[in-house]
Design goal:
single chain, alpha/beta, D-Maltodextrin-Binding Protein, domain 2, six-stranded mixed sheet, 11 helices, Periplasmic binding protein-related protein
Length: 265
Amino acid sequence: MPLGARAATTPLTFGVFPNLSPERQFRLYQLLTDYLEQRLARPIQLYTAKTPRAFIDATQLGNFDIVLTPPHLAWLAEQEAGYRPLATYTGTINGLLVVAAASRLRSAAELRGSTIAIPDPLAIVTMLGISFLQETGLRRGTDYQFVNRGSHNNAALAVINGEVPAAIVGGLSYSQFPENMRSKLRIIGTTIKVKSFFFMANPLLPPTTVQAVREALLTFGTTPQGRLFLDHGHFGPILPATAHNLTTMARYGVEVQRLLKESTP
């Protein structure tokens, strides 16, 4: 088989950050995967990971040809593994401080002495949440404690099930929760907004493939399946991205580096 034909039929690996359950993740991204396969005329293998740490490790090892990852981890992938920005959603990411719908809590200040559920210490919304709580006069480790629930969904369920009085979850993830789940929660605080997820290309991908993937991503939103995908996920349109778009994420990426170093045996 000619080398060019072989390259065209070799699957592209697409790694998606694990911010939803694997079942919901694969169901949501199947529309995009099918479109990329059609446009690029080659198979796309969709992957995620059990934890953010595992996803970061796989990205750093270059296991994915394309990744879709939060902005601070996109900065990290660029700095440490040479990944190149392709595109990003126009929507934004923020954190929400939620309590049970029937809770008497009305403000973050009332959480002094409490335990707050989080999706993961490495999540951008956790970092935004720490800053938000600090602005209300609450210091982590002194005025409140975190408990890691491993996902946005599980953090919210910890509140619904009465295990903790409050949780920090992503605004995007909250919008993707089923209505019967959102109806059991109430928002009492909102963090600042930062850029949304970035599509990044492995530095070993040929320039022609990188350009083809970028063009496919940018035209996806003009198709019926693309509009359905973007509306259902509450992502906003897909726009081109450059390294310049990631500069504001440096402070959060550096914090991830510190946390990873601390957790390494």
